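Researcher: Go.
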Amino acid sequence: MTRPAELAAGGLVAPERIAALDAVAARYAVAVTPAMADLIDAADPDDPIARQFIPDPAELDRRPGEIDDPIGDEPHAAAPGIVHRYPDRVLLKLVHVCAVYCRFCFRREMVGPGAKMLTPDEMAAALAYIRQTPAIWEVVITGGDPLVVSPRRIAEAVAGLAAIDHVKVIRWHTRLPVVDPERITPTLVEALKAEGKASYVVLHANHARELTPAARAACARLVDAGIPMLSQSVLLKGINDTPEALADLLRALVESRVKPYYLHHGDLAPGTSHLRTTITEGQALMRALRGHVSGICQPTYVLDIPGGHGKVPIGPGYLCESLDPESYDVTDYQGETHLYPPKA
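Model: Structure:
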């Protein structure tokens, strides 16, 4: 479903909302896969799956401080499709289309129907840049969603990277295992692998309901093939901004053999203020998880500094200087403070 009229025909929005949502769709791409449509409770105005994928007129309310390129891809564009922000790794933006379009996307100005994937010449130039930059140890393949391209194109990209000796890790970022799990076929899984290189898949998921039996089976096809999986989530108002919702998501990921990696603070993308929390709220949520949710469920809460300055951890602190210059005050998960090292 890519148009508000189709969303209405599918019972996901009221017909009287079509005109208002058409105005949003004219500005930002819309797509909802059958897998996600099946999860939406249209009777719930606050349904957390709908909030992620169904357009909202609030998206046309651009607030001060919101910017088209909130994490600063453009200042670090080094070659076609290449963003080189950190010394030992680059982003390779293989394609600018997705299976679904998230309403909070930080690349919402750059993705959508009609957007292209890299041409053969552009891909050659991107590989040449990586080949000529021996500091690059890891290539992070993103987009758009790079797994929407054919297994043949995926295999070609992997082969090109595998031929570069100093590239040791190939990491794919995708939503496909949850939003269109049947596309994670054995052929696609095999295309991701390269002898002598470590292949990782980072799943983007934001609510426990996304980890359906079909999604878990898709993750299993990857993990069972020897491809480790991590996750990235975005902290989103009305979606996962309670201790219960966040704990459910993180546990569901770990149950699926996906290690939580990052919890992103919402980026300053245009028209997304209705989905952003405050950093203080995010820190309180992370503190609520500590000690109550298994350590393997704990992601790093990060802020991608606007302007291309990179990600930094912004979780709560547990250690501070004590009045005793030889000791620290340490706060445990129950909020009690202890002196370290303890006095004899």
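Model: The two ends are 67 Å apart (CA to CA).
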